[in-house]
Amino acid sequence: MSGLAIENLSMRFDLPNGSSVQALKDVSLTLAPGELMSVLGPSGCGKTTLLNIVAGFLAPTEGQIVMNGHRVRGPDRERGMVFQQGALFEWMNVRENVSFGPRMAGKRERDWAQTVDHLLEVVGLKDFKEKAVYELSGGMQQRVALARCLANEPDVILMDEPLGALDALTREKMQGLVLKLWKETGKTIILITHSVEEALLLGERLLVMAPRPGRIHTEYRLPFADMGVNADLREVKKHPDFGQKREEILGMIWDMEEEIMGRSETAE
Ligand SMILES: Nc1ncnc2c1ncn2[C@@H]1O[C@H](COP(=O)(O)OP(=O)(O)OP(=O)(O)O)[C@@H](O)[C@H]1O
């Protein structure tokens, strides 16, 4: 079976003081190839833990990840990761960063050059390929990170707050780029964000998680990502359903935060 299945996933972290944290409890969902899902939820609800387990960086206490019919047992090129800070190699220029994966896989330049140059063009960095990482703005560095991830030809791209460190205008441009890459490459994408607007704009599926223990609270199927592929994102945000969903989800997360605050005040 192709696609990604998250099956009955639970994760408990045992702490040195003998207590433990139930970061995830019985999380299950499946993603068909090419689906784009955003994940939202209050701090500590297990978003990053979930992504790290899908990436294969962490082994769950219970449950499993099944990717294209086989069980995930560790990191693999089929699942690429993009972090909040690009995690680029400072000592390599842009093209060297983007071609890192294929070069490490032992491919010769003539086998990767065309793909890498095409990716640099798609992310708008064709004229910057010889530049050093430190010469780039934050937005440009995230473009390099996206291109470097795509150069590995993953089936799934996992993004942990990839646009969180960018200024508002750059962030908006990058949201458009994420949608463009999604449509052009047909990759399956899971994107964690703390921004309700971003989750609405970029998620054809939007997962709201709840904390303590981390679990799925509500899932939406939304039209806005598809709309945003061909339209100005600002126009999409003016859609009456967009505003209505934003208020609904903000209220939902607000209530969760209130509950957490209430619980910790009672505990004091
Ligand atoms: N390595 C670890 N050891 C112990 N506890 C951990 C570890 N990693 C995560 N946790 C705990 O698991 C819970 C979920 O953490 P996680 O980072 O996945 O949440 P998150 O939703 O991504 O939070 P944020 O939005 O703040 O990034 C939290 O209570 C966190 O403190």
Look at the structure and give the CATH class of the largest domain.
Answer: Alpha Beta
Which ligands are bound?
adenosine-5'-triphosphate
What's the Cα radius of gyration?
19 Å
The average pLDDT value, as a whole number, equals: 91
Number of domains: 2
Biggest sheet: strands, sense, closure? Answer: 6 strands, mixed
Query: What low-confidence regions span 5 or more consecutive residues with pLDDT below 50?
Result: none
Q: What's the architecture of the largest domain in CATH terms?
A: 3-Layer(aba) Sandwich
How many β strands by DSSP?
A: 10
* Shape designation: globular
CATH homologous superfamily grouping of the largest domain: P-loop containing nucleotide triphosphate hydrolases
| Structure class | alpha/beta
Question: How would you explain this protein's 3D organization?
Answer:
The protein is an alpha/beta fold. The protein has two domains: 1-78 and 155-252, Rossmann fold (3-Layer(aba) Sandwich); 86-153, no CATH class. It has ten helices and ten strands. It has helices at residues 47-55, 94-98, 100-104, 109-122, 138-151, 168-185, 196-202, 224-230, 233-237, 240-267; strands at residues 4-14, 20-31, 36-40, 62-67, 70-71, 79-82, 156-160, 188-192, 205-210, 215-221. Strands 6-7-8-3-9-10 form a six-stranded mixed sheet, sandwiched between helices. Helix 4 crosses helix 5 (138-151) and helix 6 (168-185) packs across helix 8. The longest helix is centred in the last third of the chain and has 28 residues, at 240-267. The protein is globular, with a radius of gyration of 19 Å. 36% of the residues are buried. The model has no long low-confidence stretch (mean pLDDT 91). The structure holds adenosine-5'-triphosphate. The site of adenosine-5'-triphosphate (ATP) has 12 residues, from strand 2 and helix 1. Residues 13, 21, 23, 41, 43-49, 214 line the site of adenosine-5'-triphosphate (ATP).
